[in-house]
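Input sequence (171 aa), recorded before submission:
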Amino acid sequence: MASSVYKWLIIPILVLSLTAARPSEDHPFHVSVIEINHNAADKTLEISCKIFTDDFEKVLAKNYHTKVDLINPSNKSAMDTLVKKYLFSHLSVSANSQPVRFSYLGFENDKEAVYSYIEVENVPVVSKLGVSANIMYDQFDDQMNIMHVTVNGSRKSSKLNFPEVEAVFNF
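Predicted structure, token format:
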């Protein structure tokens, strides 16, 4: 079973190498990566979402009927508003069976991908983490959302293939 888990963990690396070789063409896989880290000292959940820039711009433009430029935004505040609105409507988390409240921190672009950052305050302990994610499902029916969750140094991973939306991590 461990070898099957590692097979799909390598997919983001393969996707990035394929898109780096063909930046002007559509990439063969549609993947996002969600990282959730529990910071016990600060009692926070630190969440990052990595989404291909071209795909993310397409879905934001389609959903919000506006011009989107995440690489060189003329109005960073307007782009932050779109990214926040999209993520908050396509991602939710519960800690210890209680829904959490997100604080949006911002986004940055790194070549082919956009990294978006979210924080959840007042989470002293995590024994169970539920994640509901349908990021990019409204754009691609072959979308895969990979999740890595780290609590007390223990890292667990899962993946959701369209149309799956729910994952639960027990610690």
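Checked by second reader. The longest helix spans residues 76-90.
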